[in-house]
Amino acid sequence: MSCAQLPYLFQLALSQSQSYPKNTIYKTIDAYPKFLERAESQLSDREWDLFEDNPYEWEVPIRDLDTACGKDIDKYNVHNHQKLLERLGICVQKPLTNAPTVISTRKDPKCRFIYLYGSHSRAKLRLTRAMLLDILTFHQVMPTFLDFLYVFGQQSETTELQFSSFKEQVVLTNPPDELVLPSLGRSGKHYQMCYNLKSAALKSKNTENSTLNEWTIRQVVVHHQFDVINGNILWIVLRGNIDIQQRFKALTDRNARSEDKSFGTPEDCFRSSLSAQLMYCYAATEDWRWYIKWLENVVDKEHIMAVIGPPGVGYAHKTYTPRDIQDLQIWEEKTRRVILALEGNLDVMLALVSFYRKLSRNKSFPLRKPCASDICAFASQVENIVSDFRMQIKRAEFLVRTISDRRQLVIQHLQSQSASRAERLSRSMEQEQVFMLIITVVTLIYLPATFVSTFFSTNVVKYQDSNSPGGTFSAVAMKRWLQVTIPLTVLTCGVAYLARQYMVGKRREGEFGLEEGRSTLWTVKNFFNSSVALLPFHNRAPHDPKGSFFNRVMTGRTQDIELSDT
What we know:
- 47% of the residues lie in helices and 15% in strands.
- By secondary structure, it is an alpha+beta fold.
- It folds into three domains: 1-281, Beta Polymerase, domain 2 (2-Layer Sandwich), CATH 3.30.460; 285-439, no CATH class; 516-566, no CATH class.
- The strands form four sheets. It has a seven-stranded mixed sheet with strand order 3-2-6-10-9-8-7, with helices on both faces. A three-stranded antiparallel sheet has the order 1-5-4. A two-stranded antiparallel sheet has the order 11-12.
- The longest helix has 85 residues, at 372-456.
- The radius of gyration is 43 Å and the shape is elongated.
């Protein structure tokens, strides 16, 4: 094992790896001290959510290709911090008198793939903060990588689906001396980028009812570095499962295409990096078509009766409830999230193509001429993916419009159902009114006879006296009957009138009490384009001496109704 001395500032950065990103050597204008302090603080705030604290869960797969010791493939799963330092080739020597010295024990491979993942997309990453910061410091990853890290970590619901970004850093001329590390195979002239892509995946499948299937949107974060002189490649990939790791393994396995795993020259290394970029892009296209198709099928199955269901008596049609409107809103929001994710992928891929095209026009890029055709071929394939995304976006937008139209239909059906119920109630009231009219007419017919029978049953006129066959009349009985009947009738009418006045007064007092809390006003236009102020039961206008709103409407004095809120 050969050991090589590292520049002092690089040693200092490694010894202070836990202060990342403040220990980065190459600082751009946007990496001002306040930004670095805030980035470190945010990482500390999210530490508990992001990193696994159970040592038995730690695992960092590292796959080195074309190593300095002659191995085509050297793969290892790191399970602790010390093994990670050994894998990276970092050795800290602590002499008794001087300060600790950091040396490198191995040269960087031509291609290194570091995979950071959790058990699922909403779980903690299976490493510690110290392990991550050692990886980022040793490879001098740009600080904006932390922004992409926060889409992962322990969380109850998937967040940051709206986040999409592409960041780049290019150092092709005058690199800092501390980044020129011949012992590690680093020329200092390099570029690096970081971006995230989203893909759809079927989480669980219900064989009995497809509408109960569960779909999820998963993210992948890709960090890439390329040394333009030596051709060294670095991949740091974050994912919620091992899916991308298996894809990269298949891309660079012994049975894979030679052009995807050739690292003999910087040109070969660059072409291999483009192959990996295409692999990430193609992985982001999978299952979007089937996810959108599933959304279309669910909306059609659940709400197609709103379109083809024949309304009216004698037809079997669905009775709608406000829950149907809520369901349509849920499906619309899911579809809009699909559109947002697809547009994010589209923007990232266009930025990726733009980056490589600008790189091919950069005179400081030594591979611009030998790899110009490879960049054109790469751009063409990515643009094909972008075209597919545009078609899927149009399809999802059409589904959003369809859901919106059906929601309006459901609202109309609800209004129609309410009108039908009101009509049935009106018909029932009409029948009751007919019955009451019949009872009233019958009562009026029998009222005279009842009055006569009652009157002749008194002692005013008697027909039962045998001495007077023609009947006898008693003026005293008639007088007493009138003396009792007339006052009692007047008293009954008076009590009824007073009771009515009392109830009317109580009702007005209640209305006046509610009117004082008036705050809002609804204006409803009548059929003649005149607006009438309708007040809710808890908000009434101040007392109008001309009469209540209901009385004025019933008497036709609508011109007295105020047309706006004063």
